[in-house]
């Protein structure tokens, strides 16, 4: 286990333990966060605990042509009942991701400190959001880190059924149109799998990440 000091440094991702934890400590300074994502690393920790830096193996990803849109989801999209915007209201998206209740979870890992840090990244054009609106009310969305060729998804929320999927599909369409190589989804969950995401080994992920 590596302990991060004030030095702007991360060890090689191959040094992560079996769970995927690479290092502990440090801060959420914008330069450190940018270095982390460019290096295949992300922070994930509970409020009140030291910062944990992760680089899991395997890694959950979506190759953009592998997106699965179910027939029922296509019907929802064809109704045009939702409006989708790109990076219009980042702070509200991340704040909703913090507050939304999730099955099997008592709380959230998105602390106020993390919101402040990612809002600074948004101001620098690094963190971006997708918003889903219904009658001018924000009802779904997601946010992540934009590396220019890989988008690192962080969290999503729905206040109306399927609106996080609407945001996800809109993001993938944007990434396709702008020649991105990959959507990084970090770790496995069945919801992501239903959308076409699957796990690849860390070595393969890092090869794509470094292939700008």
TrEMBL record:
Location in or out of the cell: Cytoplasm
Keywords for the protein's UniProt record, in alphabetical order: Acyltransferase, Cytoplasm, Transferase
Top-level taxon in the UniProt lineage: Bacteria
Single Gene Ontology MF annotation: leucyl-tRNA--protein transferase activity
Protein name: Leucyl/phenylalanyl-tRNA--protein transferase
GO biological process entries: protein catabolic process
Species annotation: Flavobacterium hibernum
Reported function: Functions in the N-end rule pathway of protein degradation where it conjugates Leu, Phe and, less efficiently, Met from aminoacyl-tRNAs to the N-termini of proteins containing an N-terminal arginine or lysine.
EC numbers on record: 2.3.2.6
Record field: catalytic activity: N-terminal L-lysyl-[protein] + L-leucyl-tRNA(Leu) = N-terminal L-leucyl-L-lysyl-[protein] + tRNA(Leu) + H(+); L-phenylalanyl-tRNA(Phe) + an N-terminal L-alpha-aminoacyl-[protein] = an N-terminal L-phenylalanyl-L-alpha-aminoacyl-[protein] + tRNA(Phe); N-terminal L-arginyl-[protein] + L-leucyl-tRNA(Leu) = N-terminal L-leucyl-L-arginyl-[protein] + tRNA(Leu) + H(+)
Cellular component, GO, one term: cytoplasm
Group of enzyme by EC: transferase
UniProt record similarity statement: Belongs to the L/F-transferase family.
Pfam family, any one: Leu_Phe_trans
InterPro entries listed in its UniProt record: Acyl_CoA_acyltransferase, Leu/Phe-tRNA_Trfase, Leu/Phe-tRNA_Trfase_C, Leu/Phe-tRNA_Trfase_N
């Amino acid at each position: 286990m590596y302990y991060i000091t004030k030095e702007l440094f991360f060890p090689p991702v191959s040094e992560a333990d079996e769970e995927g934890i690479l290092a502990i400590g440090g801060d959420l300074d914008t330069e450190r966060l940018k270095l982390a994502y460019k290096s295949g690393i992300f922070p994930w920790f509970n409020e009140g605990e030291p910062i944990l830096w992760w680089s899991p193996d395997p890694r959950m990803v979506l190759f953009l042509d592998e997106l699965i849109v179910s027939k029922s989801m296509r019907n929802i999209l064809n109704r045009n009942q939702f409006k989708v915007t790109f990076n219009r209201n980042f702070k509200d998206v991340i704040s909703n991701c913090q507050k939304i209740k999730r099955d099997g979870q008592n709380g959230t890992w998105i602390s106020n400190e993390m919101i402040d840090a990612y809002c600074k990244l948004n101001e620098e054009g690094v963190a971006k959001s997708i918003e889903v609106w219904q009658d001018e009310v924000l009802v779904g969305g997601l946010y992540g880190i934009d590396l220019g060729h890989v988008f690192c998804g962080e969290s999503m929320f729905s206040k109306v059924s399927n609106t996080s999927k609407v945001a996800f599909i809109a993001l993938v369409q944007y990434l396709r149109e702008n020649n991105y190589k990959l959507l990084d989804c970090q770790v496995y969950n069945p919801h992501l799998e239903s959308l076409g995401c699957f796990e690849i080994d860390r070595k393969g992920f890092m090869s794509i990440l470094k292939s700008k």
